[in-house]
Every structure is written in C-alpha cells, then in structure tokens.
C-alpha cells in the first residue's frame, strides 16, 4: 500500500527571554515555574489507517538538545493546532516515537509537549494530519479481440485481454463453447450483459454472456429461406440492430434474443448508427457495378425507412459526435474515386470531405476522431501512412501523428477507441499470418502489443 509522508516543521517556541517570546498556552502568558523549557522538533506522522475520518500510524519527533528537565512527552489531538482536545497518551523521555492506534478519530493536528513532575511545557510542537483513505486501484473492464479470419476458411477466433494483468487468453470462444466461432467474423458489440458477434459467411449472429459462453445463435433468413449475411451491429433503447447484406436492417429483442422486425434499406449495407433517435444505415452497394452513395434514415418506432441522404461513393463506416454530426468513411470505387472521410450535417443533409486517400479507417471517443490513412503502392500495399487526430468540437486537426512515442505500426487493419478510457486499439494484418493488437493510451504512448490468435483482427468488444 502506498502511503504519503507529510513533513511539517514544528512550531519552535523556545522560551528564551533574551531572544524571543515563547508560544504560551496559559491565559496569563507566563511560563509556569519548573516546567520544561525545551521543545521537540521535526515532528512527523504517517497515517496508515485506510478508513475515512480515522487515523493510525507512527508519530515521531526529534528530542530537544537538552532533556535534563524532561521526564516524558504528552501527546494530544487538536482541531486547531493549539487546543488540547483529546489526550492520545504519554511516552517516557528517550523514546521519540508513539504508535497512534488505528481507528483513532481524525483530528487536524497532533501535539507533542515536553513535561515533567511540575507540569507540561507551554511550548507546543505539532504536525498537521492528512487523513489517508486508500485509493482503490482502478479495475479496468476486460476487452475482447475479434479476429475475422480468412474468408471461407472458417477460422474466426475470439481472444480476451485483461488490461489489469496484461494477460491475453486466446481462442476463448472455442474454449468455452467447444466449437469455432465460424467463417469471417465481421463485427462485435457489448450491450448490457450480453455480447453480439456478426459472422458474415456463416450467416449467424452469436449472442454470448460476458464470458463468451453462447446463449443463442441466430441465423437470419429471408422470406424464401435464403440466408441473410449479417454485417454490423448497433444498439438503442433495449434493442440491437444488425445490417443484413441483402439490403435489410433487422431488430433483435435483447430479452427473447429473436429477430422481431426487418425493414428494407439500400443495397449491401455496412454500419448502422443511432443519432438523435434515428437509425442511419450506410448503403455501400458493394456488389453493384456502380456503388451506392446514400445513408438510409430509419425510424426505430415504425421501423421504416423515412428518407435517404446522399454522401460519398460507397459509404461504409460511421461515428457520431456529441453535436449530432455523423462522420462517414466512404470507400470510393477502388479505381478512379478514392476513399474519403466526410462530415455529414444530418439536419441539412449535406456533407463535407475532411480527408481523401486510397485507404481510410477511423475510431472515435469523446469527440476526438482518430484517422489512419494511407496510399497504395503498385502492389496495393499501404505506403505513406498517417495517424491523424481531429477534434470534432472545433473541427480542427490536432495532430499529424497521434502515436507520440515513436512506435512504428505497419499493416494497420482496424482502429477502435475505448469510450471509457480513451485507449486506442490498432489491429494489424498481412492477410497471411496472425496479426498483432497494439494498444496506446489516449496520449499516444504504447501500453501493449499482443500477438492475437487469428488473422485480421477486426473488432474490439469493450466490457463495461
């Protein structure tokens, strides 16, 4: 346990008439005849009692140069540093410390006064007391890493990271459930006491408890019985929403763990976000020769699409700030139209481009936007990568590199920000071997680098 030492210079009140007047606690300001004239110095006290308004610990002091007329020291608790409110005890001369019992009522000062058979000195030495209440070590909630795996290889995995012990447990879903997670895990979200994982090629939504134990597996199908590939998740007012890549948005009741509603949106929807009581769905049109450029606006009560908002080509990923503006990463067409990050004014239905590049990913927490952008070389490998931070409140770029300690991150594949701590999680991938998860503090200092169990670390689930 960490304690705090407080050193206070004693009030030195040497009763030497030729030099200065002593601190006198008699009403008539006269030194009683025969009582000690010496005063202790260097009084120290360390409170080690962990309870509020209680003290305990070792009181110590340095004896006067001469102790000929001193037989003992008397100790008092004092509220103002002068009055002898409560007697703590006595100790014989030659002993320069005293143990204050735990659970002693707090007082602002402890007095140490020399005494003999004639009485107590009028000179008072004192130390100010600070009540030490043990600060609980913050227990950080656990974090799940969802590794997408290789497409059509049925090798998605889930790892669990304890930020308190820095321990990583790999393949926890398989360990807890005795089976694999499935083919191409696409998104993960913690909501309430449950965790939701969309597995796109297996056409399943896994609902688990906080230990990753499966509670229900949902397999959405259309009216003809064809599987509907789930992609991305969001939650709002007790419901979970999932985009289905055949052009639908589904509502999941979190109690029954059943899909209760579906509505038609645009083609091949990616992320869904709630802003101002409406659901916004990014319609990528990813399978179309010409990509889509719209966001569907869905009323969660009627569960119908109200309108569409035109943004950039191939909208995919979204985050909202506290002012109700939406930030949308549009993928472009991977040819003559580059990717862009756009700020969307939802009221006006207009958007402004903030960044344009071959590759863009983003994460957001507390109105701070983090952007990783890069160009492609001739082999479609990322080059000239930038790690940019942007303040959504002031609409200004705050840094060209939010990694401040010089750490090099190659092959950035995913970017997530813990809303509780501001820690930044960057997953890396070369599409061939298992990836790494880099963890940085909100100040851009590396906290950890972990080798995850699967390919393509894509999602992070933050327990609360």
Automatic annotation (TrEMBL):
Keywords: Signal
Keyword Ubl conjugation appears in the UniProt entry: no
Keyword Signal (UniProt): yes
Coiled-coil stretches: none
Lineage: Bacteria, Pseudomonadati, Bacteroidota, Bacteroidia, Bacteroidales
Source organism (scientific name): Parabacteroides faecis
Span of the signal peptide: 1-22
Superkingdom to which the source organism belongs: Bacteria
Protein's name according to its UniProt entry: Uncharacterized protein
């Amino acid at each position: 346990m960490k304690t705090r030492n407080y050193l206070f210079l004693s009030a030195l009140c040497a009763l030497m008439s030729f030099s200065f007047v002593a601190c006198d606690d008699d009403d008539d300001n006269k030194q009683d005849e025969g009582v000690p004239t010496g005063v202790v110095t260097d009084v120290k006290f360390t409170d080690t009692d962990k309870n509020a308004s209680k003290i305990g610990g070792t009181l110590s002091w340095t004896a006067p140069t001469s102790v000929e007329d001193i037989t003992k020291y008397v100790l008092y608790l004092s509220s103002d540093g002068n009055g002898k409110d409560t007697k703590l005890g006595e100790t014989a001369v030659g002993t320069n410390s005293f143990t204050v019992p735990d659970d002693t009522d707090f007082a602002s000062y402890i007095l140490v006064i020399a005494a003999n058979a004639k009485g107590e000195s009028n000179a008072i030495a004192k130390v100010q007391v600070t009540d030490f209440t043990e600060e609980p070590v913050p227990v950080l909630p656990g974090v799940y890493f969802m590794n997408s795996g290789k497409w059509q290889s049925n090798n998605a995995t889930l790892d669990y990271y304890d930020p308190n012990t820095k321990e990583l447990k790999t393949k926890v879903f398989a360990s807890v459930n005795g089976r694999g997670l499935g083919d191409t895990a696409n998104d993960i979200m913690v909501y309430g006491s449950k965790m939701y994982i969309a597995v796109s090629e297996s056409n399943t939504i896994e609902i688990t408890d906080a230990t990753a134990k499966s509670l229900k597996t949902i397999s959405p199908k259309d009216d003809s019985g064809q599987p509907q590939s789930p992609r991305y998740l969001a939650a709002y007012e007790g419901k979970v929403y999932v985009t289905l890549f055949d052009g639908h948005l589904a509502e999941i009741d979190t109690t029954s763990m059943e899909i209760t509603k579906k509505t038609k949106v645009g083609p091949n929807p990616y992320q869904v976000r709630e802003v101002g009581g409406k659901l916004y769905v990014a319609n990528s049109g990813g399978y179309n020769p010409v990509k889509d450029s719209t966001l569907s606006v869905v009323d969660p009560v009627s569960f119908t699409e109200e309108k569409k908002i035109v943004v950039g080509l191939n909208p995919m990923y979204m985050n909202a700030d506290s002012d109700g503006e939406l930030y949308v990463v549009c993928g472009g067409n991977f040819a003559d139209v580059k990717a862009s990050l756009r700020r969307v004014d939802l009221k006006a239905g207009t958007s402004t481009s903030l960044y344009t590049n071959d590759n863009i990913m983003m994460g957001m927490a507390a109105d701070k936007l983090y952007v990783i952008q890069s160009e492609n070389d001739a082999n479609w490998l990322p080059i000239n990568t930038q790690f940019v931070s942007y303040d959504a409140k002031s609409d200004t770029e705050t840094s060209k590199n939010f990694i401040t300690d010089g750490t090099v991150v190659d092959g950035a594949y995913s970017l997530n920000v813990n809303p509780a701590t501001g820690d930044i999680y960057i997953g890396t991938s070369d599409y061939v071997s298992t990836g790494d998860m880099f963890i940085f503090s909100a100040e851009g200092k590396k906290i950890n680098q972990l080798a995850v169990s699967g390919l393509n670390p894509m999602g992070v689930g933050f327990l609360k």
